[in-house]
Amino acid sequence: MGTIRWLLAISVLITHSGPIFGITLLNGDMAITEFFIISGFLMALILDERYRSSIKKFYVNRFLRIYPPYIAALLFSIIFFFFYRNGAHNPWKFFNQFEHIGEFNAFCAISNITMLGLDISRYINIDITGLIFPNFMHPHEGDSIHSCLFVPQGWTLALEIWFYLLVPFIFRWRTGLLILAVILIFIADYYTNIKIRGIDTLAFFPLALRFFLLGMITFRLYKYLSQHQGSTLPSPKKGIIDLIGFLFCIVLVVYGRDIMIFIDNLRLIDPYYRNSAYYLLFALSLPFAFSFGNNFKIDNALGEYSYPIYLFHYPIAKWAERTLSDTYIGIASLVLTMVISAIYIYTIDPKIQSIRNKVRKSKLIDSRSINIKYSPNS
To answer: Domains in the chain: how many in total?
Structure first.
């Protein structure tokens, strides 16, 4: 799924910069939602294959996977915005404007450094008198505290942390319970949007959890298909099915926005049900996309770029936005971000990966291991 993750990272980059040769891909929220689904799939996969006997190893490796790249991106952004104080996003100016409010400075400092609370920042505004929470209950009051974040897209990582903490235990659930939980959370999200206008439910973990769980369900589907297709289908036919699923997944990412607009013009279905059906189709295509792409080195290589692109692109996009003409903003942001990402991948990341491998092979950390079991049948 490396190609899919790479395209989703570029979708977020385009959202913050501009089209690349006229190509827009998904909007940022759609791309992030699909990242959550993929995260659920991959976490179930690695728990099943690597960390069945040790939750501690899982937690340590997840920390090493997301935190060092985040810190590198944070330092990059702090230095960048210190020397390039633009009007579009200027955390330094925002800090100076509200430096007299102690709780604001404490919250932003802790969130920027630890990632904890980055999701809550989307629900907090601030004015000269103090913090305004929750902001959806006070529309048009104050400025979003989100502006104090040096890696503003990092709010999704705070949700990932919550999921990582819970997934070893959710992993034990039966498939029927996972499906029931997804349905109930979708219903809760639907009525929350009706009752509370302007609320950003994607950043609220209890409601966003449905997408992670959906990814876990599709991993169960992947395991089922792997066990049964291998014994009933010849390899060439299975390869064709996987290829079709992979291409279908690509189409959903590349043309997802156009598909949504086309369905809206038909006026046949409520936009909420339309979105839900779209994400369900995306999730169902993942087992085939993973099975196909996992055989190709280029797919895995592109996947390695997805997280650094997601982390490093924002300041570069803001520079391009203020410096270049609209025609070149998107492509310049992509090229420069790919270069910065490559520098990270080939200099810092190998050291982190070495530590992760040592942790994975370590026996000391297994002293209080916990067996993780699940039933694939409902």
So the answer is: 1
